[in-house]
Amino acid sequence: MLKTLLNPDRPVSVNGVALILTLMFMHLVGPQAVILQPAFVDGMVGQLGFDPVQAGYVAASENTGKAVQSLLMMILVTRVNWRYLFYGALAVLIAGNLICTVVDDYQTFRVVRFFTGVANGTIVPLCYVVVGLTAAADRNFGLLMVSLMTYAAVIFFAIPTIFAMAGLVGLLLVFAAFASLALPLVRNVPTHGEQPSGDNEGVLTLSWGFRGMALGAMFFYFVATFAVWTYMSLIGRDAGIPEQQVANALTLSQFAGIAGAGIAVLLGSRFGRAWPLAISLVGSMVALAILGSYRTAMGFAVAACIFQLLWNTTHPYLLAAHASFDRSGRQVTYAVAMQMMGIATGPAIAAWILTLPGGSYARIIALSTALLAITALLIQPPVLRESSL
Predict the structure, then answer these.
(1) Per-residue buried b or exposed e for 316-342, using 16+ beta carbons within 10 Å of the residue's own CB
(2) Of 4, 46, 325, 356, which sits 20 to 30 A from 216 (CA to CA)?
(3) How crowded is residue 205: how many other Cβ atoms within 10 Å of its Cβ?
(4) Interatomic CA distance for residues 33 and 51, integer angstroms
């Protein structure tokens, strides 16, 4: 049976509907706990009895596993059968989530979530690699983002019901169930990358100095984003907003995120990248100001929606900018690694802030605002320099 599923001779069309649908599903299965991190952290605090600092470190552990594996994938992707990688990662996701349903010890839970993060760090980069083989990679990347955020919107809305019926165990079973459903789809993916859709040879357009600034921008952007996003649900609850209203706001924010990705697709490089990035980053700082200043259900909803809208506008432009700096594709690989490390670092720093005397969510918001400003300062010189060439 396994030989049949892994058969390298089985024909796979990289532009077939089956592959695209498989990747859309795989891409939402891998990062479930990350994209739903506010609800997951809320569940650890409310259902398992972890304090916010412990929950933040669990989230950081999962993100660290994802970051470490994303670096290893730069080697594994050219050496290991891709179906083996998918099957192995899905098996770890299923086992890890099921183990977490019977574990309530903080240290054990944290270790298990590290390994589910490793699985995530296998599935997501590999999905991007396979999408890169398709003829309509831009469109297909957009489809991955739309399916992921639609899934997140549905689950965010259902979180209060899931927690009321089965607690955090219910959410973990959802994670395991979706990973199980993905297993028979692995046969639809190619086993290797010998079917490129275009010429990957290119030239560098910027020096390492400018490219290093851009990599720093990628890292600081995701530190800022996930320091806040991880605690978004608890920030709303801390403001006295009822759980269902927080869930509703986060659900709406997912649809705002879909719109943000759509903006990037529609505008493309029509207005360059400097202006869209500047407007999106400044707008994100405004969203955080609203989040910290207007502690009402309406203020929280508006802040969450603006934050998600501009997050999903900024991210494609950052990736496109890195691609333009090095047309060989290596810069994008480094940028994704910086993204993963930022995702891992953000929750850890936020959790550390809460341990300090006077530590609060307001300080996390202030730090994230400062890091967004640093991101804007770092990304503009390389983007402007590249546009002048």
Answers:
(1) bbbbbbbebbbbeebbbbbbbbbbbbb
(2) 356
(3) 16
(4) 18
Name which residue leads in pLDDT, 195 or 241.
241
Nearest Cα to Cα of residue 14 among 3, 2, 22: 22
Q: Has residue 219 been placed in a domain?
A: yes
- Mean pLDDT, residues 194-219 taken together: 71
Predicted structure pTM score:
0.73
Look up residue 204 and give its DSSP letter: B
Pick the closest to residue 306 from 358, 242, 355, 372 (CA basis): 372
Whether 173 maps to a domain, the answer reads yes
The domain spanning residue 92 has which CATH number?
A: 1.20.1250.20
Range of the domain at 215: 208-387
Asked whether the beta carbons of 313 and 304 are under 8 A apart, the reply is no
244 C-beta neighbours (distance < 10 Å), count: 12
Same domain, 383 and 266: yes
Residue 126 counted as domain residue: yes
Amino acid making up residue 87: Y
Is 66 part of a structural domain of the chain?
Answer: yes
Does residue 162 sit in the same domain as residue 242?
no
Burial code of 153-165, b = ≥16 C-beta within 10 A, e = fewer?
bebbbbbbebbee
Residues 183 and 84 in one domain: yes
- Report the C-alpha gap between 48 and 54 in whole angstroms: 11
Cα separation, 299 vs 293, whole angstroms: 8
In this predicted model, what pLDDT tens digit does every residue of 28-40 receive, in sequence order? 999 888 888 888 9
pLDDT digits (tens, 9 = 90+) for 230-256: 899 899 999 999 988 998 898 899 889
What would the mean pLDDT of 333-353 be, rounded to a whole number?
86
Number of other residues whose CB lies within 10 A of the CB of residue 194: 7
Q: How far apart are CA 174 and CA 238, in angstroms?
A: 27
With contact defined as beta carbons under 8 Å apart, do 87 and 188 qualify? no
pLDDT(59) > 70: yes
Q: Does one domain contain both 225 and 349?
A: yes
Contact 245, 295 (CB under 8 A): no
Number of domains the chain is built from: 2
Length of the chain: 389
35-48: average pLDDT: 87
Torsion of CA 143, 149, 154, 155, to 10 degrees: 130
What pLDDT was estimated at residue 79? 82
Which three-class secondary structure string do you get for 235-286? HHHHCCCCHHHHHHHHHHHHHHHHHHHHHHHHHCCCCCCHHHHHHHHHHHHH
